[in-house]
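Weekly modeling sync, notes
Attendees: S.R. (lead), two postdocs, one rotation student

Agenda item 3: backlog of single-chain predictions. S.R. asked that every request posted to the team notebook include the full sequence so nobody has to chase files. The rotation student volunteered to paste the first one in as an example of the format we agreed on. Action items at the bottom.

Example entry:
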Amino acid sequence: MYKKDSPATTLQCDLSTIKLPRGCQLIELPNVGDERGELCFLEGMRHIPFKVERVFWTYNVRKDAVRGNHAHRTCSMVLFAVGGQLTIDLDDGETYVALRMDRPNVGILIPPFVWSRQFDFEEHAACVCLASTPYEPDDYIYRFEEIDNHEL
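Predicted structure, as returned to the notebook:
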């Protein structure tokens, strides 16, 4: 079973200083706020580097639950914690990072062959994921060794 422990880096910093696994990228969306609250938006290929073919979300996740815990062969994803906070770790076999997703307008691009897990969910945390492909069970990789041995 895959498990690494490392303190999570908060996104409340200069995002350019965070070393990410191969192909991963932090995506900061426009955020407009006034006395009524905050509004964040994204526009197709302008903010996300692929055509979105699938959208899914998680919510009501127990604090001790782990989501993800896999990689993909062809699918790229962008994950946003749109409410509350959670931790995501990413590993391409050479570079590992744990991020505390604590800004709803900042997402993480996860390319194929990068392992990711989401865990340490705050109560009422909600996570939205944009995917480059429709759901395909054969695209999932559930053994980290396949990532660790993949040619970079």
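Discussion: group reviewed the output briefly. Residues 144-148 form the longest helix (5 residues).
Action items: rotation student to repeat for the remaining queue; S.R. to check formatting next week.
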